[in-house]
């Protein structure tokens, strides 16, 4: 029969084995790489994911091996044409050498601080060699590649590989932007006023030309109308003369009938004329001949 002391020792030994076994195992995730430390000194770097063994007295530090973000606050840079720029950029990087990274910077927070300083320096160097137009329009893609390459070379000593650098925004400072906007607004207003003046002048020229052409057309039409009217009057007179020469009595009768029609058209048919007037010649005699006076008897 076993004594209680033997059971206790066995249980204690089992617990010790479990604790030592637990302390000798560590897991590496697919997104991590692990540094094994022995009394604070690196002794191994494990990059393969899975379950691994170590000495119970060793410790581990997990370092992310995914692509990490570096958000850089807006910085001012001066282009080669002395234009001040407000540049908002960011970078993407990954830790390619975990041991060098741990020995040089130690943590991702410290790495971000160091990379921010290097990124700002690279931005100022590269952008200081080109003009404002190259930055904002012409060569932005090439400039971002140059900044990335410079930052990657400088970050290599920290075990870091810079994957990409992007300039999110590059613009003039707010006060400069307002001045440029005001200048552009003034210039556009001047051009608009010039266009309106040219349009008004052109409209006046067109209106004057149209008025002149209308005056000429009306004058020519009036002249042609007068000529036509004169020709018509001449033709009428010729026809009247021809008709009068053929039958003078009928012509006189026709003229008298026309005069009667015009004179008796209104409701008032009173005339202040002598009865023997030539106007009434067809009233007293249908033939239109005036009665001759008979000589007085002695």
Automatic annotation (TrEMBL):
<dbReference type="InterPro" id="IPR001107">
    <property type="entry name" value="Band_7"/>
</dbReference>
<comment type="similarity">
    <text>Belongs to the band 7/mec-2 family. HflC subfamily.</text>
</comment>
<comment type="function">
    <text>HflC and HflK could regulate a protease.</text>
</comment>
<dbReference type="Pfam" id="PF01145">
    <property type="entry name" value="Band_7"/>
</dbReference>
<protein>
    <recommendedName>
        <fullName>Protein HflC</fullName>
    </recommendedName>
</protein>
<keyword id="KW-1133">Transmembrane helix</keyword>
<dbReference type="InterPro" id="IPR010200">
    <property type="entry name" value="HflC"/>
</dbReference>
<dbReference type="GO" id="GO:0016020">
    <property type="term" value="C:membrane"/>
</dbReference>
<keyword id="KW-0472">Membrane</keyword>
<dbReference type="GO" id="GO:0008233">
    <property type="term" value="F:peptidase activity"/>
</dbReference>
<feature type="domain" description="Band 7">
    <location>
        <begin position="23"/>
        <end position="184"/>
    </location>
</feature>
<keyword id="KW-0812">Transmembrane</keyword>
<dbReference type="InterPro" id="IPR036013">
    <property type="entry name" value="Band_7/SPFH_dom_sf"/>
</dbReference>
<keyword id="KW-0378">Hydrolase</keyword>
<dbReference type="GO" id="GO:0006508">
    <property type="term" value="P:proteolysis"/>
</dbReference>
<keyword id="KW-0645">Protease</keyword>
């Amino acid at each position: 029969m076993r004594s209680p002391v033997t059971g206790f020792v066995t249980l204690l030994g089992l617990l010790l084995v479990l604790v030592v076994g637990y302390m000798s195992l560590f897991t590496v995730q697919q997104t991590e790489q692990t540094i094994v430390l022995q009394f604070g000194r690196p002794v191994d770097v494990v990059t393969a994911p899975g379950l691994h063994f170590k000495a119970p007295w060793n410790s581990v530090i997990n370092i992310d091996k995914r692509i990490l973000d570096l958000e850089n606050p807006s910085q001012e840079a001066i282009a080669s044409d002395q234009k001040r720029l407000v540049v908002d950029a960011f970078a993407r990087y990954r830790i390619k050498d975990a041991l060098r990274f741990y020995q040089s910077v130690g943590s991702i927070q410290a790495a971000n601080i160091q990379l921010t300083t290097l990124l700002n320096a690279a931005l100022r160097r590269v952008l200081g060699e080109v003009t404002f137009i190259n930055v904002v329009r012409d060569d932005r893609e090439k400039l971002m590649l140059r900044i990335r390459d410079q930052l990657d070379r400088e970050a290599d000593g920290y075990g870091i590989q810079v994957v990409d650098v992007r300039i999110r925004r590059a613009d003039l400072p707010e006060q400069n932007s307002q001045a440029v906007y005001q200048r552009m607004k003034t210039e556009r207003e001047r051009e608009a006023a010039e266009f309106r003046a040219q349009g008004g002048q052109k409209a006046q020229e067109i209106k004057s030309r149209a008025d002149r052409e209308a005056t000429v057309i009306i004058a020519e039409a009036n002249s042609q109308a007068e000529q036509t009217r004169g020709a018509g009057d001449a033709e009428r007179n010729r026809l009247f003369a021809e008709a009068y020469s053929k039958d003078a009595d009928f012509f006189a009768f026709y003229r008298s009938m026309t005069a009667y029609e015009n004179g008796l058209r209104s409701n008032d048919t009173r005339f202040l004329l002598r009865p023997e007037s030539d106007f009434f010649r067809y009233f007293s005699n249908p033939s239109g001949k005036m009665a001759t006076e008979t000589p007085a008897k002695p």
